[in-house]
Amino acid sequence: MSGYPTLRPQSLASKVIDLPKGAYGVPDAMMNGLMAGRASAGLQTAHPLQASEEQWNDHQMKLDLVMLKNSQGIHAPLKLQMERFAVSQMQRLPCLHSSNILMDTLTGADERIRFEDILNNPADSEVMGQPHAMMERRLGFL
């Protein structure tokens, strides 16, 4: 086996979620909610493809990194992951819109047109927040 992930992404709905137990060994409904635990285990996604579509980008990236590792060695995927991590750490002030063009270039998202690219673009927003309050919230002063 060459180490490739499965071609079919696993559904998130089939995973069992373990809740922390309360003081008496039962899940605490006041802290975790009434639908937590066994009641939510029976819930399904709205459509069978929903879980697959939510995981598609991560799954495709894993496949690409394994293929790159098998063809060029371990250094190539490590370098790409290091570049993505460094780019994800760069931020603008919270009141300024960022296009994240470098991350889009590294992930290949600059070549795709998605729903978010046309409708509900944050750069077209007419509302501007208070820069000082937004920065204080980011730094944890508020």
TrEMBL record:
<dbReference type="GO" id="GO:0005634">
    <property type="term" value="C:nucleus"/>
</dbReference>
<dbReference type="InterPro" id="IPR008012">
    <property type="entry name" value="Ump1"/>
</dbReference>
<dbReference type="Pfam" id="PF05348">
    <property type="entry name" value="UMP1"/>
</dbReference>
<protein>
    <recommendedName>
        <fullName>Proteasome maturation protein</fullName>
    </recommendedName>
</protein>
<comment type="similarity">
    <text>Belongs to the POMP/UMP1 family.</text>
</comment>
<dbReference type="GO" id="GO:0005737">
    <property type="term" value="C:cytoplasm"/>
</dbReference>
<keyword id="KW-0143">Chaperone</keyword>
<dbReference type="GO" id="GO:0043248">
    <property type="term" value="P:proteasome assembly"/>
</dbReference>
